[in-house]
Amino acid sequence: MSQSIEDITAILSATPELTVSEPEPGFPVIDVQTPVSSATIALHGAQVLTWAPTDHPPVLYVSPKARMTPGTALRGGIPICWPWFGNHPEDPSKPSHGFARTRFWELVSGELVGKVATIVFKLLPDEETKALFPYDFELTATIRIADKLRVKLNMKNTGEEVYKVSSALHTYLSLGDIERIQLEGVKGSHYVDQLSDDKEPIYQEKNLQIRGEVDRIYQSMSSVLIRDLDRFRSVFVDKAGSRSTVVWNPWKERSKEINDLPDKAYREFVCVECANAGTDKPTLHPNGSHTLETVIGLRPLT
Ligand code: TA6
Predict the structure, then answer these.
(1) pTM of the prediction?
(2) What CA–CA distance (Å, rounded) separates 132 from 94?
(3) Most buried residue, 102, 108, 172, 254, by CB count within 10 Å?
(4) Which domain does 252 fall in, by range?
């Protein structure tokens, strides 16, 4: 259950550029207008849904068939995958990518200072999360919207037991045409192919062009640059607190199998996810914390 529209409105009341709407009943979304960009953020999952600098096409992709249904992952924007990435390591019956993206987060604050809007959300454990993940935690998502988009996830162990987590800021980037992009930043790194039973790391010799299904965990701390020839722009994905970058495109057959994705949608997005995935699994000690961050923006196509 989310905070009420009245409570959300009260928190945002000092900043007329931040308003709340309900595109679906019971699914509040914060609308953000800064002098240089606009965004929408759902309280469900503290999920950035849209972001674009003024007068630019969207930078993030949201499926036209995305569901705004509490408890269901929304296909697009930047889902927060935590406390595990992908299938649960021991129990496949647990939700894919953890539970952070399918719960309502508490809106803590929202403000606009100059050209930068900052919205903060918090997620605390309850009996449902304890049934899935028997530990105490405090998650804080800080989202800064300006001529760049910055999403910072701080994960704190507020309990007495040590535990490991895997996570991802599962960013869906909007493209003009998947076959007219080049993905730079992974060349020279190794990746584990999630589509293969062989988990031996593979060397990435060149910049990545996508001509089929790709689902790879790159062992890399580098930024990624997507050169989008169709939209005549580049999109950069910088990161911190991450030793793994996930690149995913479902391509034709997998797109047909995903019911909240149009069949041809694979041509319009690629996921570039700043992650702690694969062997990159931070350990959280009591009172310890880890921060995973992504910064996304546009550059001219050079
Ligand atoms: O990040 C890549 C991935 O793990 C893929 O294997 C695919 O499952 C994708 O995430 C989407 O997962 P979702 O649970 O959102 O359908």
Answers:
(1) 0.98
(2) 7
(3) 172
(4) 5-300
CATH number at residue 58: 2.70.98.10
- Distance of alpha carbon 149 from alpha carbon 56, whole angstroms: 14
pLDDT tens profile 58-112: 999 999 999 999 999 999 999 999 999 999 989 999 999 999 999 999 999 999 9
Domain total in the chain? 1
- Ligand 1 proximal residues by C-beta, below 6 Å: 73, 86, 96-97, 170, 194, 215, 246, 248, 271, 273
The three-class DSSP label of residue 152 is strand
pLDDT at res. 302:
82
- Both tokens of 235, joined, read 């999109």
201 CA distance to ligand 1 centroid (A)? 20
All residues at 6 or more sequence positions from 215 whose CB lies less than 8 Å from its CB, including other chains: 193, 194, 195, 246, 247, 248
